[in-house]
Amino acid sequence: MAPLTPELLAAEYLAGWQRAKADYANLKREVEARQLELVRYANLELLKELLPLVDYFKQALKAVPQPQRGEAWVDGIRHIQSRLEQVLAYHGVKAIEVMGEKFNPELHEAVGDVEAEGESGTVVEEVRTGFTLYDKLLQPARVKVAK
User: Fold this and answer.
1) 114-140, pLDDT tens digit by residue?
2) Which of 97, 100, 142 is closest to 119 using CA atoms?
3) Measured between alpha carbons, how far is 88 from 50 in angstroms, rounded to an integer?
4) Is 127 in contact with 117 (CB distance < 8 Å)?
5) Looking at the chain, which runs of residues are DSSP E strands?
6) What whole-number distance in Å separates Cα of residue 47 and Cα of residue 93?
7) Which residue among 21, 62, 94, 102 is least enclosed by CB atoms within 10 Å?
8) What is the pLDDT of residues 22-31, one digit of tens each?
């Protein structure tokens, strides 16, 4: 084995330092990505608990008799529903648009099929709203699909 000259030794040390620096930069990026994910999904369970409220408000407002739809208490319920949706949106929760869309088993959960006009396999009724949290599915939409 040839003796290490100062130039070869310096080159070896430089290469080792560069590898260590690159490894540290990669580790730093990974840690930052994990921290971002932890922050993004820290409230996941709480948000899941709030999701049924969206459908409860929809059902409650559908059940209001036509003559009472313009009354102040109904407007109050709509305002609470709107505020809930704003809070969810602020935290990255988005409702999945389903009506008229082609059935997608990654986003939809079929609870029935119905005779309907239009293309077979198209969503014709939403039974439960589906939601995503940023890029992850939080709750699949329960839908009825055209035969």
Assistant:
1) 888 778 889 999 999 999 999 899 999
2) 100
3) 8
4) no
5) 93-95, 108-114, 123-128, 131-133, 136-139, 141-146
6) 8
7) 62
8) 999 999 999 9
What tokens appear for 69 in the block? Answer: 């739809």
Angstrom distance (rounded) from CA 133 to CA 44: 8
State the Cα–Cα distance between residues 93 and 136, nearest whole angstrom. 10
Q: What are 94's strand-pairing partners?
A: 132
Main-chain phi, psi angles of 47, to 5 degrees: -65, -40
The Cβ of residue 47 has, within 10 Å, a number of other Cβ atoms equal to 19
Residue 52 corresponds to which tokens in the numbers above? 């049924």
Cα(116)–Cα(138) distance, rounded to whole angstroms?
A: 29
Residue 141's nearest CA partner among 101, 102, 110 is 110
> What residue has token string 């709509």?
78
Joined tokens for residue 6 = 């100062």
| Residue 78 tokens, joined | 């709509």
pTM equals 0.73
CA-nearest of 120, 138, 118 to 128 is 138
Fill in the amino acid letter for 136.
K
